[in-house]
Amino acid sequence: MTTPTERTTALSPADQRLPLMQLLLVGFQHVLLMYGGAVAVPLIVGQAAGLSREEIAFLINADLLVAGIATIVQSIGIGPVGIRMPVMMGASFAAVGSMVVMAGMPGVGIQGIFGATIAAGFFGLLIAPFMSRVVRFFPPLVTGTVITSIGLTLFPVAVNWAGGGNGATHFGALEYLSIAALVLGTILLVNRFLKGFWVNVSVLLGMALGYLLAGASGMVDLTGLDETPWFQLVEPMHFGMPRFELASVLSMCLVVVIIFVESTGMFLALGKITGREICPNALRRGLMCDAGASFLAGFFNTFTHSSFAQNIGLVQMTGVRSRYVTVAAGSLLIILSLLPKAAFLVASIPPAVLGGAGIAMFGMVTATGIKILHEADITDRSNQLLVAVSIGMGMAPVVRPDLFAQLPHWMEPITHSGIAMATVSALTLNLLFNIFGEKNRSQQCTAH
């Protein structure tokens, strides 16, 4: 007879259940890591649309609600939707450039953005079954290159946080660097000298210690906490009926295609980390959730959603690969969306605290990509060229964001995303060097 312990051991890492306290703590780590990115998109778009501070706060709560729901669905799966892996969802940066332009266009504004989001989500639901078939074009050579690029394109974000973040009075000041070093050092020491549960929550421990020191140093700004309500519901279509403008809809549909390309790379990365094969059916479920979240988001006053790359690093860093951790994290996001004061406290975490954690985790994403590249034939000169050029293309918009500024605006979702640039390059060069090239060589051999 099989014992409960043996049954647990037989489960795949993604399906294992953790004790409640550990589940909540590791889930809270995921929330802390992605929170800054989750609130950044509504902040940027709300300011571009000229919304008041109260309206922008409402946008943030709406984003947290949809992110929480989408994370739970993506992680646990409901019917044909959800990839059933530890995925965190949130508002996608791929659409920011297009939405900022829309916000300033006459007759579009915030209602036009929500309308375009709804239409693009519906478009995504239609094309997800076809996009899911591209998984065969992601061998270890392409997957490893994309995952390496994900880590490298995220790393500047961690460095920027460590220096104090955007708007820091004295970027790179010793106080910021000290906080980041303390967080990073705590994570490293916990991983070196402790085991089990403590390693799983090492990022949380480092960030908690950094937050306390930052608070003692006067770096935590709680101005406005007293005026923030305790409880607030997110009502659908708070800003009025969505508007559907053709140009905005087409632009956002392109964004959804780019999100699908990025998500495919991220799902494959998680598949490698969790030991779960990403077949076309699994990929279809994941992309359906991305599209469904965007469709729902437009009705609930928020924007296109996708999986968050930075949380892949946390899965690799902690070794906790259970999807129930992100289910817990999604539940916490929903609670935060209903409790503005709690959300305010999480938002008060100084960037330097996030920077120390980000250096370790985003570096782990890069290390995962390099590990996967070992499965490919890197001794082949064409494969070396594929890796070199694709990583270079991925870093181009990171090193010089204005490099493609003279190109048409509709290309911005691609040219402003290092992940999208690296993915498109790796896919194209793999077709050129290996798939079409292999076919041509086979035909030549047959002819001889």
UniProtKB/TrEMBL annotation:
A Pfam family reported for this protein in Swiss-Prot or TrEMBL: Xan_ur_permease
Gene Ontology cellular-component annotations: plasma membrane
Topology of the protein relative to the lipid bilayer: Multi-pass membrane protein
Ranges in a coiled coil: none
Subcellular location: Cell membrane
Membrane spanning residue stretches: 20-44, 56-73, 85-104, 110-130, 137-159, 171-190, 197-220, 246-270, 324-346, 352-373, 385-401, 413-433
Main localisation: membrane
Signal peptide: none
GO molecular function list: xanthine transmembrane transporter activity
Keywords of this entry: Cell membrane, Membrane, Transmembrane, Transmembrane helix, Transport
Domain of life where this protein originates: Bacteria
Annotated family: Belongs to the nucleobase:cation symporter-2 (NCS2) (TC 2.A.40) family.
NCBIfam families assigned: ncs2, NCS2_1, pbuX
Protein name: Putative uric acid transporter
